[in-house]
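Final report, section 2: Outcomes. Of the targets proposed, TonB-dependent outer membrane receptor is the one most frequently requested by collaborating groups, and we therefore present its record in full.
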Amino acid sequence: MHARGVEAALGYGWDNGWRVNGAYTFNKATYLGSDDTDRDRALEIAPGSQVIGQPRNTLVASADWQGQAWAFGISGRYLGKRYLDASNRNSLDGVTTFDAHLGLSLSQLTTQLQGMKLDLNVSNLTDKRYLEGVDGSDSAFIAAPRTVGLTLTLDL
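The predicted structure is given below as tokens.
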């Protein structure tokens, strides 16, 4: 295997509580093959083909706001085309998903709740149905549907 790539990330925050972030990854991970072409053929490895499950392109962007009591954010992730097999005959299309969060510092409501924070997190906000994990056996795992979680944090 041979891998080359580049990753870049950029973020900026304003005095009004807003912050934006973005990151891009280009990953050219390819099979080199071995000196044994019969073995490569038996394993269906084609030298130069993209490594199983590794997208060439990944992009992540987010926008978050943090106030005195409230916090809010949304993020999106693009995962490029991935291959299910070493010969790159079977592929999964690229997919874009979104997540969101909403938080409340309960201590801003009353001093009796000092150090308490409530967070609502939603993963796969649009309930996108897609295949996510690739295991190298020409198959993939179904991604989780929309998932909602509520967290109560207490700082002691």
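The chain has one domain: 2-154.
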